[in-house]
Amino acid sequence: MTQRAHAGAPPHAETNYVAIWGVLCGLLAVSVLGPMAGVRILTLITAFGIAIVKAYIVCSYFMHLNIEKRWVAYILGFMLALMLVFFGGVAPDVLEHEGLRWQRTYVAPVTSGSER
Amino acid sequence: MTSRPIATTRSVMEVPTGRLAMWWVLASETVVFGGLLGVYVMMRLRHGAWADEAANTSTWAGAFNTLVLLTSSLSAVLAHQAAERADGPKAARLLRYTMLGGGVFLVVKAFEWTHEIREGFTITSGLFWSFYYTAAGLHAAHVLAGIIVMFIVSLTAARNEELQRVENIGIYWHFVDVVWIFLFPLLYIAK
C-alpha cells in the first residue's frame, strides 16, 4: 500500500486529473500562439508568465504540494531563494560594465560571430 | 528485525522516509537546474544576439515534446491514484504509458539534435548552443534515468508490491516535467 501522510487532506482519488491536464494543454497552446503576435510584452507574459502558472499547477496538483506538509514546500522554496541570491550576486558582474567600487579591466578580444 | 528497507518502515514529521528522500533529491536538483538556467538567463540578457541563434530551434518540436511530457505526467499521477486504490497492475500499466511518453520525448529530441547538428549547430558552435545542448542534454539524461527507475518500479507494482514507490517516482517525473516547462520558453520561444 502507499503510505498516505497528507493528514486532513482529501484523498487523491477525488481529484479530476484529466481536467487539470486539459487546463495545462490549453495553457501550452496559449504559450505557443501568444509569442507569434510578435509583441515583446505579450511574448514575456504568454511564454514565461504562463510557464510559471503551468509549473505551479503541476507542483500543486500532480506533485500534491497543495496537500503535502508545509515544510516540504519551504525546503524547495529555500532552494529557489538560494538561486535568487546566486543570481543577484553574480548578475551585476555579468551584466554591468562598471560599479561603485569596481571597474572592468579586462578587454574582450574581437571574436567571430560564434561568441555572440 | 525486519528485512524491509528503512524507506518503507519509518516516517519523519509525518512524511514517509522514502518520499522525504525524494523531496531532498528534488531540492538538490532545484539547485542544479536553477543554477544552470540562472546563468543562461544572465548570459541571454547580456548577449541580445542569442535571439538569432534561438531562431534555429524548432518551436513545434519543443511544443510537441511539452505536450508529451504533460501527458506522461497525467499517466504518472493516475498511476499514483491507482496505487492508492491498491490496484498495482493498473498502476504498472499507467507507468508503462509514462515510460512510453518519455521514450517518445527522447526520440523527438534525437531527431531534433540530428537535424541541428547536420545544420552545423554543435555544442562548440557558440555559447548559446553550449547552453542549449548542456541544458537539454542534462534534462534528457534525467528523462532516461526516470524511465529506467520507472521500469523497475512497474515490475514490483504489477505484483501489488511496494506500491509507495509509484508515488515517489511520480514526484520525480513531475519535477522533470516542471524543468522542461521552463526550458521550453527559454530555448524555443524567446527568439
Which range best describes the helical content of chain B: under 10%, 10-25%, 25-40%, 40-55%, 55-70% or over 70%?
A: over 70%
Shape of chain B: elongated
Q: What is the CATH topology classification name of chain B?
A: Four Helix Bundle (Hemerythrin (Met), subunit A)
Largest β-sheet summary of chain A? none
Number of strands of chain A: 0
Please mark out the parts of chain B with pLDDT under 50 across 5 or more consecutive residues, or reply none: none
Low-pLDDT windows of residues of chain A = 1-9
- How many domains of chain B? The number is 1
Through-space gap between termini of chain A: 55 Å
Strand content of chain A: under 5%
Order of helices and strands of chain A: HHH
Morphology of chain A: flat
Report the helical percentage of chain A: 55-70%
What's the CATH C level of chain B? Mainly Alpha
Description of the molecule:
The complex is a heterodimer of chains A (116) and B (191). The N and C termini of chain A lie far apart (55 Å). The longest helix of chain A is centred in the last third of the chain and has 26 residues, at 70-95. In chain A, 57% of the residues lie in helices and 0% in strands. Chain A has 116 residues and is mainly α. Chain A folds into two domains: 15-67; 68-98. Chain A is built from three helices and no strands. The radius of gyration of chain A is 21 Å and the shape is flat. Chain B is mainly alpha-helical. Chain B has a single domain (13-189), classed as Up-down Bundle (Four Helix Bundle (Hemerythrin (Met), subunit A)), CATH 1.20.120.80. In chain B, 79% of the residues lie in helices and 2% in strands. Chain B is built from six helices and two strands; from the N terminus they run ββαααααα. Chain B has a two-stranded antiparallel ribbon. In chain B, a hairpin with a 2-residue loop joins strand 1 and strand 2. In chain B, helix 3 packs antiparallel against helix 4, helix 4 (88-118) runs antiparallel to helix 5 (127-158) and helix 5 (127-158) packs antiparallel against helix 6. Chain B is elongated and about 55 Å long. Chain B starts with 10 loop residues before the first strand and ends with a helix. Classes of the chains: A mainly alpha (116), B mainly alpha (191). The interface between A and B is large, with 52 and 68 residues.
